[in-house]
Design goal:
- With about 100 residues, the chain is α+β, with helices and mostly antiparallel strands.
- Helices cover about 30% and strands about 35% of the residues.
- The chain has a five-stranded mixed β-sheet, covered by helices on one side.
- A hairpin with a 5-residue loop joins strand 2 and strand 3.
- Helix 1 packs antiparallel against helix 2.
- The N and C termini lie far apart (about 35 Å).
């Protein structure tokens, strides 16, 4: 934990997004927002039609990422978000799309 500011502790966000989220620019929009927020991690399509996001950064920025994605795509595209926060499992140097 960051003793000077515990709100800036690095966390890992793992999200499974279901709905109409493939073929609509979801991964590129996630990359754009995550990069703007200074987050690192990955986003990728899963074979079952969901999108997986792994992002690392301060909790308030991770929450902002989710908020931006929900505002941009709305309920017409996003049916469900399965969200889990944890300590980082690995280290990422940037945010990227995995094919």
């Amino acid at each position: 934990m960051n003793i000077l500011n515990p709100f800036h502790e690095l966390l890992e966000l793992h999200v499974l997004v279901s709905g109409h989220v493939q073929g609509v620019g979801f991964r590129s929009t996630t990359l754009h927002y995550a990069s703007q927020l200074g987050l690192t991690g990955t986003v990728r399509n899963l074979k079952d039609g969901r999108v997986e996001i792994i992002a690392q950064g301060p909790k308030e920025k991770l929450e902002k990422l989710l908020s931006l994605l929900q505002a941009y795509f709305g309920s017409s595209y996003i049916a469900c978000l399965e969200v889990n926060y944890s300590q980082p499992s690995t280290s990422y140097s940037q945010f990227q799309i995995i094919s």
